[in-house]
Amino acid sequence: MKILRIVTLLALAALVSCGETGSQKVPGADIVITNAKIWTGDPEKPWVEAMAIQDEYIVQTGTNAEVSHLVEAAAEVIDAPEGIVVPGFIDSHVHFLDGGFALSSVKLRDALTKAEFVARIATYANTLMPGDWILNGDWDHKNWGGELPRHDWVDEVTPNNPLLINRLDGHMLLANAAAMKLANITADTPDVAGGKIVRDADGNPTGIFKDNAMNLVLRAVPTPSAAQLDAALKAASEYTASHGVTSVHDMSDWQSLATFRRAAAKSSLKTRIYQSVPLRDWRRLAKEVELNGDGDHWLKIGGLKGFMDGSLGSHTAAFFQPFTDAPSDRGFFINEATDMANWITSADQAGLHVLVHAIGDRAISTLLDIYADIDALDDPLAEYGKRDRRFRIEHAQHIAPQDIKRFADLNVIASMQPYHAIDDGRWAEEVIGPERAKSTYAFKSLLDAGANVAFGSDWYVAPPIPLTGIYAAVTRSTLDGEHPDGWVPEEKISVEDALTAYTRTAAYASFDENIKGQLKQGLLADFIILDKNLLEIAPENIRNVRVMRTVVGGETIFQRKSRR
After folding, report:
1. pLDDT confidence of 378, banded at 50, 70, 90?
2. Distance separating alpha carbons of residues 540 and 538, to the nearest angstrom
3. Which domains, ranges and CATH numbers included, belong to the chain?
4. Going by C-beta distance under 8 Å and a sequence separation of 6 or more, which residues neighbour residue 470?
5. What is the mean pLDDT of residues 65-83?
6. What is the rounded distance in angstroms from the CA atom of residue 84 to the CA atom of residue 548?
7. I need a surface site. Which of 92, 384, 412, 505 has the fewest CB within 10 A?
8. Are the beta carbons of 414 and 368 closer than 8 angstroms?
9. To the nearest 10°, the Cα dihedral for 242, 247, 249, 255?
10. Full 3-state SS string of 113-141
11. Is the full-model pTM beyond 0.70?
């Protein structure tokens, strides 16, 4: 069936390119876009003014005249003289179901004081039944001066509800007394490798758990039902579609995969998903791919996500030198380097795709060493020369200057989230100092070195809004307004480079560049229409651009009713 479909499409494309064959007219397209400014993402044909879609695929791009013979019989003609049409955004790093759940949870990201933090939790708790858990939250202690919250801040307003809310980076949790009781956490609970239980002067847990220590409390959280997971997926898809996202790379687990598969079985997926599972489960994934294949253009597997270190805001990212504001601390590895090397090598030998979180310069450098050692091995899976592994480093935030070129030399993809730069830029220099900040979120340096840079959001950690990400990469203007000309301005990039990172390179980062990420004949019809042309407006206005329509596989999944 798939072979027949491809042959049919090729035949249609051939007819389209010829106009008419004898007396037979070319079949009309489902959608024809005319009079538009269409940025295709294709370096060989970057701009066209018309595009035709048949079923799931693009069958023609070019001038109005070149597609005019398809207009009369088209099911829909979109006249788009205003704004711009671009490939659908691909978010290269999300926690999709967590993001869906967070949409209906307590909102703490912009709580600016301790009092506001507590008040929002109290208000939300009043909407719950006794025993319901309070999760997510996305708080940021930097907003009120850097003091970490404690369970005694919130115990009084959450007497009937266990609370386990994460810092916005996902590497630190606050648990209230009720949650710690359910998890059997006491002063006698031992610390764990790759994590930390924050304690008071008497040794009692304050409620803050970092990285691997978070699992001590997370194990007490009830598993969500299938119905709850399905609802979170629906909410996540609808929300991201409204911001022009047509594909995501999900950094999650087997529970998420089961949820995505339920939706795929009912043909109800509206977002294309490249799913990764934990690196330590490489054997299970290898068996899964062997038995069932790696999926299709709606749901694809084969990726493995691992962790080298934590985050800058939690002081758990691994650096060569100590933190500027904590001279006795330089972070830590969540997993030992030897374990990571063994897992990555085994996964690679099984032909799987490895994606590893690394934020601090020591974590990034150590991971590059591991990748280099593997790349130097004899590879039985490579037919000619080096195998196209496309190892990825997720976040790649604080790179030692000497390691920037190694990304290009090893063809390691820097999977980065530009929103973090304008968020962390408010306070990062307090933590790592101005010198290390020079190669922080080094978008331009990586591109200049010839590296592949793919963009994403890290949602739920940051908003899954690519237009905000493009604004961040182009302006680097921090959220507090303190750097209007850009924080580390020499790392600003062009709008077109940012668009490419959210489209063509993001598709490359999941081995999908031959089916999506560009608007060209034969590729999937995933595109969006924006109300303003990003390449013609002032950079500071990019974050105000709105998505008017989001189309996935020729189907409109979001449409704004008004330009206002």
Report:
1. confident
2. 6
3. 97-218 (3.10.310.70)
4. 418, 495, 498, 499, 502, 534, 542
5. 91
6. 10
7. 384
8. no
9. 80
10. CHHHHHHHHHHHHCCCCCCCCEEEEEECH
11. yes
